[in-house]
Amino acid sequence: MIDRMTKYSFILLNGEEGALLDQLQQLGLVDITRSEKAVDEESSKLSGEVDLIQGLIQGIKGISLPEDTKPLTYPEEDLVRLVGGTLMHYADIQAKVAALSKEESAMEHWGHFDPDVLRKLSEAGVPVHFHTLPAKQFKQEWQEEYALDVISRDKDHLYFVVAGADGLPGEVTAPQRDAAAVNADLQKALQAQATLQGIIAAIKERLPELEAKKRSAYASLDRYLAGQAAVPAAENTIVTLVGYAPADCDATVTRALEDAGVFYLQEEASVDDRPPIRFKNNKFVKMFEVLTDMYGRPEYDGFDPTPFIAVFFMLFFALCMGDMGYGLVLIVVGLLLRKVESFKSLAPLVVTLGGATVVVGFFLHTFFSIDIAQWECFAGIRGIFLPDEIAGYAGGMVLSLIIGVVHLCLAMIIKAINAVRVHGFDASLGTLGWTLLIVGGVVVGGISLTGVMSSEVTKWVVIALGVISAIGIFPLNNPKRNKLANVGLGLWDSYQMVTGLLGDVLSYLRLYALGLAGSMLGMAFNDMGNMVLGDGSNPILWVFFILLVLIGHTLNIAMCALGAFVHPLRLNFLEFFKNSGYEAGGRKFNPLTNNE
Known about the structure:
Radius of gyration: 36 Å
Strand content: 5-15%
Helix content: 55-70%
Number of strands: 15
Distance between the termini: 24 Å
Structural class: alpha+beta
Number of domains: 4
């Protein structure tokens, strides 16, 4: 749900806003309306400092050190300057080591020689030419015809030199120095690299200190931007600031402001104020707020779609994956993500989606694309599994359409409730008419299929629903407009609703299609593995079987997970949001605080 906000208007003498902002930053509960980006040279400088420190942190974290690296002491200096210089030197030495290693690899075949001697021979008219050829192309008679000496050879190539006249193939550029000199430079570079690695290991131990510097720099930027939001008045003698805080924190905020002797006006925030949006959800729903933020937070008079996304995205994801085994893999992945700092916050969501996939995969009776309904251990509970066919159609397809109808009906109910809440009953008759017609028709049709109502009663109920709904849809869809204009608009809405709603319902077939595609591909990998395994008598074939099945299902899980993320988002962001009337446009609650 959307948390209610209280608006605070501050009136201060010019120059006093700094002390107020410092107090609010310590309090950490008030969102001062301010820019989120740099607005002048000073804020650009502060923003650059934040980006610099963040880049240094990522650079240090991204360096992998040998396990036996021991931290080295270094001259005490500014930490940010130290990290920046160390990263630059380390990048240079890494490039130098790579270049020398490549040069050494190219030189190892030529051994030790004196470049000065080669130069003097060339000046005396006896140049020395260097050649390399595949061994099968080398002709032994060349050694009789030329002043040729084979220096070395490997499995496939020969390396030789020719003094004087030369017309042989495979000539390469003459080395500028010998292998010993290159190796000496390489060892020096490796020593310098090891020293820098020791310093980096020591810096890694001070990463918390660097993180604290980043938070401090960010707090300074945030504080500066809030100060720039102050509006001067009365010929710059006073300034005004506007902030918002959750209504349930009023007592804490007002007590802090009164202790500070600040003059302020307090009132309940309204839609016209465009206050920031803070969600107030339980721990389960809060995991899915990241999905709502991908689309955008609602306006202040809107509704929080996160609870509905939490339930239906989880269900849709599980249907698209559709496999108990894949769900178990996701749970393991989620538990492992808890150890990765950058993905730690997503770990609970991955575990939750994996658990939902296990439950749904059980009812779809699929475990790594194997039909567990055929297992004898489940013989007594096969009745709870989703049947292969429902009314002559694929069970998964029927289930997907039923879920789609329920999802859209819920969206229309939410739209009707929110319309009445925001615009009033009279202005919402058109929306109420469509909701009554469609949702009521679905409910009556469902009850009729159970046999509770006779066909005659069902007919009169449907007629009554149609008549009542038509009154709202056509003549009364907008009480402020001419009735004939309302009828025309109602006819246009009817066309859009019929064509759009049918397409929306059919969109939910993707849940069945994705689940079926993943299952069929998994079965194909299983069949390929069984073909390789044969009768299982050859132990070596078991190795190939395991590798094939393991690699195949890993690829299938990756593809299924991608589809199971994208398509449920589409069903929520397009079909559900469109039919529920959800509109994004609110900004996230961002209190002025010392914490990032």
